[in-house]
């Protein structure tokens, strides 16, 4: 039996929002089993609480934003990916602004803070969402599918008609250490012309070479270059982990994404959750048995469990 987890201690992050440019303090603190991930806008009086779940997503333009009663928290995907990648199920997030701080554009600072805070095992079993039937959503030539699997796996096919980015593909079954080392450090990225246009329209106000990879016409603008040769598709996978964590459960399923982004990730998750014949909630041992019924190969790597 695998049990739910939370943090042992508080951890605080300070930075600016990628799109708002607003300075923000964010403190993560322990939560009881069954709480999930809940954001609290403590800069408002009274504070407004927003559960991080698919039903509360109000925008997927440029990032994933959740909201309730007109109050929002934007750009949650990197933090959500870090929480899922570290195997943390329940956390209160006290935040002093409308956007999670972008930090260095990756999930690595969040992973480091979470590891320093430590993980506490709780007394309630963790539930897993086991995919039983394929679900697919499309938007033009973009496509995202989730199929039955004996692990949580993401295969991402990224396509750009650009001499620097080109096409990248990666298929992974992640564990916590692999996520921390090979995916959490992958930074968000944008094209120089698009960044300039966004700033002209009041967006990407906090964006800089300190927190994003900027792609020029024929080169990477960042002096330090890339952290990985395929950093772009690794970041797309990081985003997908964060977006899909809004299911509220760890997933047994294989996501196959072609040119996907926040919007299609959310549409896939919403479509899956709306079709209860395509999935089942189970505890870990039963989830493994259920997934094995699909006669699929045993994965080389699976999400490891925090202890």
**Tally of helical segments:** 7
CATH class of the largest domain: Alpha Beta
Quantity of strands, as a count? 19
Q: How many domains, in number, for the residues?
A: 2
Rough outline: globular
Overall pLDDT metric: 92
**pLDDT under 50 segments (min length 5)?**
297-307
Give the termini separation.
Answer: 12 Å
Helix content: 10-25%
**Quaternary class:** single chain
What class would the helix/strand composition place it in? Answer: alpha+beta
The CATH topology label of the largest domain is lpxc deacetylase, domain 1
- By CATH's scheme, which homologous superfamily of the largest domain applies? lpxc deacetylase, domain 2
Radius of gyration: 18 Å
Sheet with the most strands? 7 strands, mixed
Spell the H/E element sequence. Answer: EEEEEEEEHEHEEEEEEHEHEHEHEH
